[in-house]
UniProtKB/TrEMBL annotation:
One of its GO terms (biological process) is DNA transposition. Keywords: Coiled coil. It holds the Pfam family DDE_Tnp_Tn3. GO terms for molecular function: transposase activity. Residues 507-827 form the Tn3 transposase DDE domain. It comes from Wenjunlia tyrosinilytica. It comes from the Bacteria. InterPro entries: Tn3_Tnp_DDE_dom (IPR002513). Residues 105-132 form a coiled coil. This is Tn3 transposase DDE domain-containing protein.
């Protein structure tokens, strides 16, 4: 228990060191993190300690230990104290391996970025060299051109040589001396003189060219400049990477030592790890070359590398050898990529564990497959017994053929889609949004004018009384909080954290509190004006954060550092789930995770997203889990439409599918991978593997992953079907646009509420950053719920005054109203002690016509 007693260099206990998050991916932090790994491993083999303990219990105990400090743990009975410290140590050993692997990948990515930047700098510098070489070449050309001095000299020399040849005409090598003397009749001296003159003139002509080259620094200098330009011709940044790796080399090699991180291949393909072993064996070498043969005398297989890398590593003049520095850089690059794709795993890690080992066995899947297929809509009741590989294949084939046939048959009446008969280029006509009806505008103005003035603190307090979401909070142990006024304290914490104005609640409990507000909102009649909860939209928005952590990085999409608040917003305007994710992660990775982690009573089946919310594996997994993924597809012209077979042709829309006989779905592959597809889907549903972990690994960069190939093929079917629906159904396109606009409006509304600290999340701990996002979602949802109640109360007043309320007009009024809310000034807590009257969820407005409109539009869309 020395962790609770011994002090660190900063005066805190060593127990506190267990909880410290990793810092930013700098070289010094990278090096220090390896030392942290050594320290944690010296504490003991926690894998043995945790053997036989349920994973859920480990997670719960680790969360409780993480929320406590050393003084609190000393108050626990010895058995529990030891258990909590042991579990937290185990989690810390896993996390440091995750952090090291992540930092390694980020360091390699940074070095590649710098190598590419260096290449651009070289190209800029070489422009001057290229311009000089062009000028030099122009000068040389002028000397040897038709009117140049070299050509003039050559002409004179040729004439003189002709005179000599004429004088010696008829003579050959066998002619006798007397014959030559007689023939020349004394003209030998003039002939020889002419020949010498011709040679002098000719040499002078070429001398002009030589002097020109000498004026440019000589031939050697010209060759050097030409080679310098040629060396960096094209996108050959690989030869520059080793120079960027520099002092990272020693840390990277040290990290790859089995005593540090133990890497293992997740397939039978171990070429990258074999190459890593070869590089480690020659780590101490300082020469330019190392042998290309391993200890067994076999040549090291580098066929995994790109053509550029092989060009850099293999010197054709040195058979059987590798260029050492380029070989090492190639290995580190390949290792980072395979860690990202899951082709290489880290033993003892959590995020980089062998994901295939987290899948359920086929025998376990078979036990629940029938009920699962019915639950997600892949099979009807009674069909599941027949659902096998051939059934699944036929189902997908029919789905694609049906969608294509419907789109083709409906094309003549499809006013929105136009395919040029000459070029085959398709285009969608832009639609004009229907303007707000006068009655809706009048109703909106009246509601806004009557909205009562509210304070954020008062809104949080009243929703806490009504919904009692604050009861979700408390000690991680699950015991009752030892606070004199828990409601008041938790309201203040939510207000402060939700507005981002300051720094005791776990992420799980925050999710439950958010779900309480979602459920309460869904029970309000007014929420039916906006939707029925069956659809959700997902989108991310950039958030500024402190930078000294592994999550924060520069976003290509937003052009600045920070993280992404990725939210799932219901068609009823309220947020179902919020993630805080790195900028460098494809947002689509988290689109399904939010749906699966949503514990509220609102369980949508249709999910909309922006262009970022799509990829083949995402479409496939959404289909297998029973979700209808329909993103806003802005770049649809650049996407490939896939045919059901080579013979499939269409009267009107064949141009969409490209060249006849091409872009055909490989249904044989899908059928052969049926069991694996079902294992993955059921495992995700059962929670043995998260969808985000899976989708991070199912990347196009993985050349070894048969699972990716199968998901890609299923995804091609589903995306083609969705593209055809999207192009054929104008109302559907409007619904998708409206849904994605709604989540964008939520992002702006939540940022308006989270006004503190200029919107910057003032913490480097990723867990605290995640909490900050969820507190903000909790507060935002509380405001939405309260606004909905105020709107409903005003509608009751209007009904009593004789107004006729059209539900379609009410549907145009968003609960994202801000004018009546006081964010600034004195934050009084007097409202915490005022218990509000019970709210009325009922509203005497018939919303059935709105649902009938939605149902009609959906049926027409499916028919199209």
């Amino acid at each position: 228990m020395r962790l609770l007693e011994d002090r660190d260099s900063d005066g805190t206990t060593l127990f506190n060191r267990l909880k410290k998050p990793a810092k930013g991916p700098t070289w010094s932090h990278f090096k220090n993190l390896t030392k942290r790994l050594e320290w944690l491993d010296e504490l003991g083999d926690t894998d043995v300690w945790m053997d036989g303990v349920a994973a859920g219990k480990v997670t719960d105990f680790a969360g409780e230990a993480d929320a406590a400090d050393a003084s609190e743990l000393r108050d626990f009975v010895p058995v529990k104290r030891i258990a909590l410290v042991a579990v937290l140590t185990h989690k810390a050993r896993m996390r440091v391996r995750d952090d090291l692997a992540t930092m390694f990948c980020k360091r390699v990515a940074t070095k590649i970025k710098k190598a590419k930047a260096e290449l651009e700098e070289i190209r800029l510098a070489e422009r001057e060299i290229v311009e000089a070489l062009i000028g030099n070449y122009r000068t040389v050309l002028k000397h040897i051109d038709e009117d140049g001095p070299a050509q003039e000299a050559l002409t004179k020399a040729a004439a003189m040589t002709a005179e000599v040849r004429q004088a010696l005409d008829g003579l050959d090598a066998e002619a006798s001396v007397d014959e030559v003397a007689t023939r020349l009749e004394g003209r030998v001296s003039p002939a020889v003189l002419a020949l010498v003159k011709a040679q002098v003139v000719q040499a002078g002509g070429f001398g002009a060219v030589t002097r020109a080259v000498d004026g440019f620094g000589g031939f050697a200098k010209q060759y050097e400049q030409i080679e310098k330009v040629s060396a960096h011709h094209g996108n050959f940044w690989e030869v520059l990477l080793y120079g960027q790796i520099g002092r990272d080399r020693a840390v990277m090699f040290d990290l790859a030592d089995n005593d540090k991180l133990k890497f293992t291949a997740t397939s039978e393909d171990s070429r990258v790890l074999d190459a890593l072993t070869h590089a480690q064996r020659h780590q101490a070498a300082r020469g330019e070359y190392i042998t290309a043969f391993n200890e067994e005398g076999k040549e090291v297989d580098i066929s995994f590398a790109t053509q550029n890398w092989r060009k850099a590593v293999v010197d054709r003049t040195r058979t059987g050898q590798f260029v050492r520095k380029h070989f090492e850089a190639m290995v580190f690059t390949a290792l980072a990529e395979e860690l990202r794709t899951g082709d290489v795993a880290v033993v003892g890690s959590e995020e980089y564990a062998d994901w295939s080992e987290q899948l359920l066995d086929w025998e376990a899947v078979q036990e629940t497959l029938g009920s699962y297929l019915v639950e997600v809509g892949l099979a009807e009741q009674g069909e599941s017994a027949e659902f096998d590989a051939k059934f699944f294949r036929r189902q997908l084939e029919d789905k694609l053929r049906g969608a294509a046939a419907a789109a083709d048959a409906g094309y003549p009446e499809n006013d929105g889609l136009v395919i040029d008969p000459e070029t085959g280029i398709p285009s969608l006509k832009a639609f004009r949004a229907d303007g707000q009806r006068p009655s809706a505008k009048r109703l909106e103005q009246e509601i806004k004018a009557r909205m009562p003035e509210r304070s954020l603190m008062g809104i949080v307090a009243r929703t806490a009384y009504w919904v009692e979401w604050w009861r979700r909070f408390g000690p991680p142990s699950g015991n009752e909080p030892k606070l004199t006024d828990p409601l008041g304290r938790y309201v203040i914490v939510t207000f402060v954290k939700g507005t981002n104005m300051g720094p005791y609640v776990s992420i799980v409990l925050l999710n439950e509190a958010v779900a309480d507000l979602v459920n309460a909102h869904a029970r309000l009649d007014i929420s039916q004006a906006w939707g029925d909860g069956t659809a959700v939209a997902a989108d991310g928005t950039h958030m500024d954060t402190y930078l000294d952590n592994l999550l924060s990085e520069t976003s290509v999409r937003y052009g600045k550092p920070g993280g992404i608040a990725y939210r799932h917003v219901s068609d009823t305007y309220i947020a179902l789930f919020t993630h805080f994710i790195p900028c460098g992660v494809w947002e689509a990775v988290y689109i399904i995770e939010g749906l699966l982690k949503n514990t509220s009573e609102v369980q949508p089946t249709t999910v909309h997203a922006d262009t970022q919310g799509q990829s083949f594996p995402v479409f496939a997994l959404a289909h297998l889990l029973g979700f209808d993924l329909m993103p806003r597809i802005r770049n649809w012209k650049e996407l490939t439409f896939y045919r059901p077979s080579k013979q499939s042709e269409y009267v009107h829309i064949d141009a969409l599918f490209g060249e006849p006989g091409k872009n055909v779905i490989d249904f044989d592959l899908i059928e052969s991978q049926f069991r694996h597809l079902m294992r993955v889907a059921v495992s995700v549903r059962e929670g043995t593997i998260s969808s985000s972990t899976l989708l991070k690994r199912l990347r196009s960069g993985s050349r070894k992953n048969a699972t990716y190939a199968a998901f890609r093929e299923v995804g091609r079917v589903v995306r083609t079907v969705q593209l055809l629906r999207y192009l054929s159904d104008a109302p559907l396109r409007r619904r998708v646009t409206a849904a994605t606009n709604k989540v964008e409006s939520f992002n702006r509304f939540s940022q308006w509420i989270g006004f503190g600290n200029c919107g910057v999340i003032a913490d480097n701990d990723p867990i605290e950053q995640e909490k900050a996002m969820k507190f903000n979602a909790l507060l935002t949802n509380a405001v939405i719920f309260h606004n909905a109640l105020d709107i409903a109360e005003i509608v009751r007043q209007l009904l009593e005054e004789g107004w006729e309320i059209d539900p379609e007009d009410l549907a145009h009024i968003s609960p994202y109203l801000t004018e009546h809310i006081n964010r600034f000034g004195e934050y009084s807590t007097h409202e915490l002690g005022i218990q509000p009257e019970a709210y009325d969820p009922k509203l005497d407005v018939d919303f059935a016509p709105l649902r009938e409109q939605d149902l009609t539009a959906a049926v027409l869309g499916q028919a199209a």
